[in-house]
Amino acid sequence: MAAASLHSGDWLFALPIASCGLRLDDEAVRIGVGLRLGLLLCIPHQCHCGSQVDAHGLHSFVCICAPGRLARHHALNDLIAHALASAGTPVTKEPQGLLRSDGKRPNGLTLIPWQVGKALSCVVTVVCLLAESYVEAAARDAGAVAEIAATCKSVKYVGLDSRYIFQPIAVESLGPINDSATMFLGDLGRRITEQSGEI
């Protein structure tokens, strides 16, 4: 897990190619670098959710009213779905018929078997290391929060039909992903390479 955190700053070395979606505007770079260096980013103020925002602006990562939270989740879910399709595995998002007792569904389901004759059902979650409930675990070990989130998702979906392989994909907003997702994404990458014939 520590090796993954060594690459958390690799985005700083990406070439700013707009056609590939790699160009960040000046404000995004200012915030990204400021967060990395622990700089002051805004004037202290009260958020419309009622919480006090300090000059570091970290509240935006955990605010329940922040529009970016849902956008991040959908973008990651779309990315996984496109990757599965690129690997020659058709997938449906928010599949019907796989309801938990509370009515929530997994984010994706492969329409053909993924492994050992079972379809893959996955759930994507983005967790913020700055949330009060995660700060202590985040300080102890890189990737610990992603592991906690993945375990929570596995517990929530424990009643999922045994005909499916369940894969939680937990991404820390400022760091690595959970270990089982790392292995899953490695397998997915190999399948994409086999499908495309490109290395």
Description:
By secondary structure, the protein is of the alpha+beta class. It has one domain (2-196). It has helices spanning 2-6, 26-37, 67-86, 135-140, 144-156, 179-196; strands spanning 45-46, 52-53, 91-93, 108-110, 119-127, 164-172. Strands 3-4-5-6 form a four-stranded mixed beta sheet. The longest helix has 20 residues, at 67-86. The radius of gyration is 18 Å and the shape is globular.
Brief overview, please?
With 199 residues, this protein is an alpha+beta fold. The protein has six helices and six strands. The chain has a four-stranded mixed β-sheet with strand order 3-4-5-6.
Strand and helix layout:
Layout (H helix, E strand, L loop, with lengths): L1 H5 L19 H12 L7 E2 L5 E2 L13 H20 L4 E3 L14 E3 L8 E9 L7 H6 L3 H13 L7 E9 L6 H18 L3
Parallel strand pairs: 5-6
Antiparallel strand pairs: 1-2, 3-4, 4-5
Order of adjacent strands in the largest pleated sheet: 3-4-5-6
Question: Which spans of ≥5 residues are poorly predicted at pLDDT below 50?
Answer: none
Note the total helix count: 6
- Report the biggest beta sheet as strand number plus sense, adding barrel if it closes: 4 strands, mixed
Q: What count of structural domains?
A: 1
Mean pLDDT, to the nearest integer, reads 85
Protein structure class: alpha+beta
Net shape: globular
The radius of gyration is 18 Å
H/E order of the elements?
Answer: HHEEHEEEHHEH
Proportion of β residues? 5-15%
The helix fraction, in percent, is 25-40%
Report how far the terminal alpha carbons are from each other.
25 Å
Number of strands: 6
